[in-house]
């Protein structure tokens, strides 16, 4: 491995940026490819597959054997609102491998008693997200119903191109939300990325069931994320 | 409360490799290239080894690390990368093998 490749790869991983390390197994030469890099031909297709699947594999290209080792940032889930749905969502999200963070400025909701073993910030999303910016490997679920708390996080999530953005609320609530987000300068295309009402349509009838529907939708967005990436490349 | 996720803070062979390199140590990197059947560590897993035989990370559940570390010493000396294969169906099974019955291919190269 080239020392320069190792330094570049580690720097990208440190910054939560995706990279694929490609090694020619014939001569040992290697390079680090970022998600914004354009790689031509069959190797390019293999690189896209590596970013999409997040699993390492070998590929034969023009009689040469390449090993592609993707390094994707661990997925994060930022939940706005220390509400009942979040109480059910927290342990399930943790089991599913998400680095979970719950943000709610209402100190009566954000208590360690209600959220054992969960990373909790009893502060405004404005403050928390300024310290820990969102990124494309982060999902945001806004669950408070309160525009004062939810809106800033939703705007930040759309601007950061989070892989999933969901918001709780009826269709009527969401229509009002769309108006506010337009006022805030977001485009229709950006706003259309919000999953609202939140969660897969499984007829969820109580907070734990809504949590299941939401987590399922987040996992779907994560695992099918590559299809969007591929589309963006082709465009 | 859990700390923010930082991949470099956990046991991280590639971060270790960089730190060892910075302190002037010769480093070999072993990578799982392919697995068949039940393999304990997925493809892409790393084991890094220095010239004194210090190591971090793993390419199996501990079954073949000893053999990989021995090969790494030679890779460091010659600078030539090597492809190793381990498994019960392999002729090296008498020496080291994977008790789980799987088979893995490991690429060992020098850093730099």
Automatic annotation (TrEMBL), chain A:
A Pfam family this chain is assigned to: XdhC_C
Domain of life: Bacteria
InterPro entries cross-referenced by the UniProt entry: MoCofactor_Util/Proc (IPR052698), XdhC_Rossmann_dom (IPR027051)
Domain XdhC Rossmann positions: 77-218
PANTHER family hit by this protein: ALDEHYDE OXIDOREDUCTASE MOLYBDENUM COFACTOR ASSEMBLY PROTEIN (PTHR30388), MOLYBDENUM COFACTOR INSERTION CHAPERONE PAOD (PTHR30388:SF4)
Stated name of the protein: Putative sulfurylase large subunit, molybdopterin cytosine dinucleotide biosynthesis
Annotated source species: Nitratireductor basaltis
Lineage summary: Bacteria, Pseudomonadati, Pseudomonadota, Alphaproteobacteria, Hyphomicrobiales
Automatic annotation (TrEMBL), chain B:
Pfam family, one: XdhC_CoxI
Coiled coil spans: none
Signal peptide interval: none
All residue ranges annotated as the XdhC- CoxI domain in the record: 20-87
Protein name: Sulfurylase small subunit, molybdopterin cytosine dinucleotide biosynthesis
